DNA sequence: CTGAAAGCGCTAACAC
DNA sequence: GTGTTAGCGCTTTCAG
């Protein structure tokens, strides 16, 4: 396509040696300058820096990592980027790692265990300094890899279960329970559940279990339930709500497994002119920012996403600094607050 | 904290040599088996595979990459994860790269050039097989790095400007222009603009420029404008809309620089009982899925996000396979379609 | 089909 | 302060 190459760009990437020759300083000293390591006289330091900049030298971290047996990468393995939850976790992680030499590298599993296993294998083969991974449920092979990797592992989001090493999260069972208790206390009795079909979203499942368990304790059963898969969550929330209200007209509360479908349901109820929460109450889960812009505030429970990211990163950073000679097995359980908004309190 | 280590996990990660000794096969042959390279007898192949699995060997890609001078990583550099747009681009990229040995690695710049420069430097130091980077505006240093890296570079999202190598995107100037033309054609005349304050979001700026340019051609000026920064976009859209409607009551159209604030504005107008689009028309930009769940469909223009990701990945993948001996400089301009929805056509 | 030798580009550990 | 010498764990190349 293109005729001839204009200015021939160096086909071979530059090496330390090139900088060494250009500056008349030994490779070793160049290396020292570029890493701010050891004492180098201001004069040579300057010479080297100039030469490196002029050549446009970019160090080869591959060689550096192999020689030093140190990789400043943290593997972050999450199920998805497309709901607002994981980007916020990432924000928390970056916030902390930005203060350190560590750098996050993200892998996405799409909630599929085989995929998780593969992504994990791939990332571990780069010998990262630590792993932050969503959830406590992993294939046996994945668990084995994490255990034998010999690096800090922080499982995040969920604390209901056995951890491999450290954990930072909330109890989703408890979150479900607390929400149910608040709903009952507000006087609602005919309660419907709306959620994702995903059998692999263990956290949604645990919330559901905690929820039904608390209802059962009060002698109440879910009055109706509806699940969805794919598509626009807002639209699905709207549609499922319509279906449920038509199928079970005497229902007086709708618990959504996430805020997005909850928001869709809320918009639907409002459009239909239903009295919220007089006639029907609603609650979601996550505490997404989006809710602030809705006509009325959906009850929700903040999942502490940024905080979880920050804590997980802090654990990795501390252990990376301590270089393995300290403990491990930290367990941090955050307590999500129920935010009743305008859709839960019966007036 | 922990007492004594239970089963001592191998402090030293396993090497090819460990597998070699365990299987009684030379390192070289083990390497061949593990990479499916060259001919190896079924018998030894089996021996090696078993040994590797039993030991839980994970190859060291650092050493592999250094030796082979090949890294199957693609650097993807984007401004943000927290609006729906880049996650969708990522989806497109993954979709294509999943069929190849290449793997995307994401870096986030938060719309800051210094940050972009640093992230780019960091990623290039891992010697990736290609770079996909958002936008055409980069610091001189960043441009120099991209040019001298000697790997395929695809700049995405935007085609209004000079490219370093390949480009895949839409013309945001044209998008702004087309939207303005449609608005004028529908009969609106007192038009307000609402957007982000970010001076560094060049694509939003170009849309704005194209928009005002098309209006000017019809002898019309923006009647009012309002900008925001940070916070919940939905809420900001609502607030800005209120401000503008109060300040400029005779306004008859609101053009939002993104769908999220547009959705907030739409909800506000609907709540106020305004006749949309009879009394006031609205339009956003991006074509986010969320709009499907709104009470009425906001006019928008699809930014072809997934498609852009797919095309960019395809270019990198093809050139990686061709190993540099082919062209470069591809230029793909996608044409976003205006989706008039329910808020643009005057009835 | 299998193995031995020679690096990949850098840094740790010592000399000077 | 600065230079020298060995590798890091793998793959390339070339011999059997």
C-alpha end-to-end distance of chain A: 72 Å
CATH architecture label name of the largest domain in chain A: 3-Layer(aba) Sandwich
Largest sheet of chain A: 6 strands, parallel
The total beta strand count of chain A reads 12
Largest interface: chains, residues each: A-B, 64 and 64 residues
Give the CATH class of the largest domain in chain A. Answer: Alpha Beta
Question: Structural class of the secondary elements of chain A?
Answer: alpha/beta
Q: How many helices of chain A?
A: 12
**Quick one: CATH superfamily of the largest domain in chain A?**
Response regulator
Per the CATH scheme, the topology name of the largest domain in chain A is: Rossmann fold
Folded structure, characterized:
2 copies of one chain form a homodimer. Chain A is built from 12 helices and 12 strands. Chain A has 347 residues and is α/β, with parallel strands linked by helices. Chain A has 2 domains: 61-170 and 307-334, 3-Layer(aba) Sandwich (Rossmann fold), CATH 3.40.50.2300; 172-302, Response regulator (Rossmann fold). In chain A, the strands form 3 sheets. A 6-stranded parallel sheet of chain A has the order 2-1-3-4-5-11. A 4-stranded parallel sheet of chain A has the order 7-6-8-9, covered by helices on one side. A two-stranded antiparallel sheet of chain A has the order 10-12. In chain A, strand 1 (73-78), helix 5 (85-97) and strand 2 (103-108) form a beta-alpha-beta unit. Chain A is elongated. Chains A and B meet through helix 4, helix 5, strand 2, helix 6 and helix 7 of A and helix 4, helix 5, strand 2, helix 6 and helix 7 of B. Chain B binds a DNA duplex (16 and 16 nucleotides) through residues 15-17, 25-29, 31-32, 35, 37-41, 44, 59-70.
